Amino acid sequence: MDRSSVSRLPGTALPASASRRLAAVGRDPINLHRALAHAPALLAPVLDLIHALRCDAEVSRGLRELMICRIAQLEGSAYELAHHLPMAAEAGLDSEQLAALERWREADCFSAPQRAVLAYAEHLGAGAARDDAALDVCFGPAEQAELTVTGATYIALARMLRALDVEIDEGVSD
């Protein structure tokens, strides 16, 4: 890998439009952005989607981060876990919950909505049976749509990260 690169692709500058988008929402660029910078027309809508999932969703940030972390585990995405486990903790998930993610079915530290999210993550990410009853008890149609887009987006991102061999950002622990 080229030392100026953060992925299997050669290094490239982040487009000014992406830098402005990130600055407008108070975010610094990360290696994912740098790797996707080779396709600026595609990076822009990815940034918009990620921002909408973070800031415009009705489902709580804690539940969305729980979804993302379980998807990251299922996808084997150390990059996503390195970024999102701290975000999950900031969103209110405790250390017991974060440690129990892979064995959540046996753990008694998750609420009914959290269990519904984890089961849905496994449906999206691993093809497990979908539990419509649990989803319907905990979430309305709009929330289920948000969870679907969240899970599907982070599956796609995990696969982009893997395909491009994106390095975990300096200063982010894996």
From TrEMBL:
Residues 44-122 form the Carboxymuconolactone decarboxylase-like domain. Pfam families: CMD. It comes from the Bacteria. This is Carboxymuconolactone decarboxylase family protein.
